[in-house]
Amino acid sequence: MEALFLGAALGLSAGLSPGPLLALVLREAVRKGARAGMLAATAPLLSDSWVVALAWWAGGALPAAALRALQLLGGLYLLRLGYAGLRPAPSSPAAPAPAAESLRAAVVMNLTNPHMYLFWFLVGAPLLQRLGAGAWWFLLGFYLTIVGSKAVLAWLAARMHRSGAQQLLVRLGDLALLGLGLYLIATAWTSRGST
Question: Are 77 and 127 in contact (CB under 8 A)?
């Protein structure tokens, strides 16, 4: 039971922490509805699994150059998402993008997020090794709460009525993605000389 509660606590913390995935989940929920935001919230289930297995197998070793490359790619992808959201909409009404595109964007964003790799290689893998057979309970608790908390926030964001507040939330989400993208690129660039 300790492993389940530990996983749930870390998952809830990660699920509610501000960051690129939460910004994207909220933006998609406000723009395309609860289904799109909730689908985007499931990205960790699809993107983390191979990283968890690799980190568990490798015992927590990841080269610094690989992290910098991921950080640069992640920053560029966040810039692309933020820019696409801030661009003026075309004058002719276009068909709304399917909710599945929200999941694809969230998976790509999570795969290029160095923080996911850092967590699983530096924190997650040692915990899984220490927990032994209880590791599966840890993973269950972690993914139930990280996905569940983001899905609940997406559902709440989508329930907002079309209003100035909702449009402000969308713009803030786009600006947050741009800001996080610039931050990732800048820190990857400045850390290249320190290793």
Answer: no
In angstroms, the CA 122 to CA 78 distance is: 24
Q: Which of 4, 6, 186, 20 lies closest to 116 in space, CA to CA?
A: 20
Over 15-65, what HEC string results?
A: HHCCCHHHHHHHHHHHHHCHHHHHHHHCHHHHHCHHHHHHHHHHCCCCCHH
**Exposure of 23 by Cβ count < 10 A (0-12 exposed, 13-18 middle, 19+ buried)?**
buried
**Helix or strand or coil: residue 7?**
helix
Q: How many whole angstroms separate alpha carbon 99 and alpha carbon 26?
A: 13
Q: State the Cα torsion 40-156-87-94 to the nearest 10°.
A: 80
- State which H helix or E strand residue 170 sits in: helix 164-191
Distance of alpha carbon 54 from alpha carbon 49, whole angstroms: 9
Q: What is the pLDDT of residues 39-97, one digit of tens each?
A: 999 999 999 888 888 877 776 566 677 767 766 776 777 677 677 767 765 544 455 56
What does the block give as tokens for 141? 């608790």
Q: Which amino acid is at 127?
A: L
Distance CA 100, CA 13 (A): 26
Model confidence, pTM: 0.71
Rounded distance, CA 77 to CA 61, Å? Answer: 25
